[in-house]
Amino acid sequence: MTLARPRPPKLLIAGSLAVAAAFVVPFAFLVVRTAGLGVADVVATLRDDAAGPLGRSLLLATASAASAGVIGVGLAWLLTRSDLPGRRLWAAVAPVPLVIPSYVGAAALVAGLAPGGLIADALTALGID
Question: Measuring CA to CA, how many Å separate 71 from each of 12, 56, 64, 91, 102?
Answer without folding.
Answer: 40, 22, 10, 14, 17
